[in-house]
Protein 1
Amino acid sequence: MSKHLGNVLEPIGLMDEHGADALRWFMLDSGSPWSARRVGHGTIAEVVRKTLLTYWNTVAFQSLYARAGNWDSSTASLDNLTDLDQWAVSQATRLARDVDQALEQFDTQRAGRFIAEFVDDLSNWYVRRSRRRFWDADHAALSTLHHCLKVVTQVMAPFTPFITERVWQDLYTTTDTESVHLSTWPEWSDENISDTLRDQVDLTRRLVELGRSARATSGVKTRQPLQRALVAAPGWDALPEGLQAQIRDEVNVLSLESLSGTDELVDVSLKANFKTLGARYGKSTPEIAAAVAAADANALVEALRSGSATVTASGVDYEIGPDDVVVTEVPREGWTVASDSGESLALDLALTPELIGQGIARDVTRLIQDARKTSGLDISDRISVTWESGNDSTISALTSHADLIASEVLATSWTQGSVSNPTASDDELELKVLIAKA
């Protein structure tokens, strides 16, 4: 930067636009104290969006549902926790340890990465997977989130003293010290950190990602329930029932079953990668390619998962690796499969009338929930719903799933009737909906 060239960024201007905490977080998180770094409005705005705004929104979420459920933070206790609660508490303890050790080495970048990853996990996994419990003012869920936010607020305080102090004043002064900067650094012990639970949740999340990938390639809507998913992954069947339920809910299937392999669900074809084979085997490459093409594709793929395989050409054995072949997998009709790093998940795409009805019910639930938001209703407001449809499938679904939809959208009445001025509508379902505060 050069003042003569006019490309200097004045720190006061940056702080005025993005906030002092945003600039502090960027400088501490983007590199070691002695490292040079590129500074710009866009890069600072990005770290605000990814970490600070996510942290703030998670705090706002906790405050909103604590107030809605008349929850008193002085009653918070980490008893009777679910597997997901225990994971969050364990990860918060891990965060306190990792940030403590990083800052002992003056490694603010590593400490910042630990904080950013935890904030993302807390918001995009724990909170999202526990929304229904927060809706019901579940004591264990509110206590767990309250505890996790306290830990992350304390370890973030040296980085972002102003936003963390504001959060502390809102959530913790009634039960703790009058300032986060006067509080004791969170205690940690390796005995309270569960690597097993961390690995189980990591596996759960990987399988969920495979399910999402499989859905994306199938074209089936996310809100359309499917009958079953078949899973092939080491240790998945040993997951606690609570975590298996998370997979079922995220992937939106009614059941999970074991899959010994994908042979029966996909057609596999192989061809040689001439570039990598040619670099190693030269003139022998065409013969090796012919041997690859003639091999049992499923058996060769299975062997390559262990790292390498052997093919024989003209009486000579050649070792090949995963990069030496191009694998093409085409799901058989009625199935979609996603695989990664030796783990696979297959979705049964067959739809029954009951499954279709459940999918319609979920679509209508989302339609009404969106209408609640645009109507300015409070999350705890009860509503009355009147609906009209000329589609037989829609009428059947809304009649048979009336109680479920009404409970989800907090409807005290659910009436089929004429709707002339709808609050929301769906052309595909031939549906018009009128909602009003009850």
Protein 2
Amino acid sequence: MEADEHGMIRYVISVNNTEQRVRPEDIGSTIIEFLKNVAVRNLTSPVTKVVMSVPAEFDQLQRNYTRKAANNAGLEVFRIINEPTAAALAYGLHTKPSLSNVLVIDLGGGTLDVSLLNVQGGMFLTQGMAGNNILGGEDFNERLHSYLKTVIETRHKQSLTDKEDLQTLRLAVEDAKINLTASDHTFLSIHLHSLGKNSLFQERITRSKFEELNSDLFQKVIDPIQTVLKATNLPPEEIDEIVLVGGSTRIPKVRQLIHKFFNKKPNTNIDPELAVAMGVSVQAGIIGGMWPLTVSAVELPTRVKKIQIN
């Protein structure tokens, strides 16, 4: 990675032993073009227009480069909306007149973002944002991975350093974490070739053990929630709806902590990994005339800055 003559970031990569320099929007364009082609194959019709979502804290320059990446992929961008707004759209919260304050908690693989939206007459206004850019599902995985690595080394009386075996363990840990969202225990069974004759490693993992290993990290999910509420002078009881986004919000302990903090269950009616995409689809449907205008929503410009908690 380096800066060009204007101070903008670009990446230096090697393609067929030839050094090339590409900008982030070039990489973004390649990804968007791939997704466009997937859509074309599934819809069997041309795709030329798009509605996109971005993190709420994106400034105008970042939004412009996002638009440029889509344009370079052959797409006309009708609208760019914030991810928390998209999630709220997916849940249809803009159609509920009794709602005023919506908290969107987005916990993915590597980051945590909390946004407070004020909803009035179908209009969304971001009132506060806070987050932790080094907290997510991968951190929870790492705790379990480290624990199991120690178990293996103790049981087999040798260090586990083989990269392939470590990756095998890492993939098994991800599967175990997912299984523990629906069950109170799971069984891990993998072959680690560097262990020789006793290459099979099997272990029963309980949800309670997973929660114990990550207890301090789970508690950190509450920190940006408290920060947003403090910054906006809102007590927890004035939050009308809690929306969950991101695969890591499926973890039962995360949901329990949020429920306990607000004394209210979060809204889990929609797959948290699909909420943003579904909301963007709703917005695209509105613009394209496929949804009645009565469900449309207006997003007011964001003027607040995100508070980073690491």
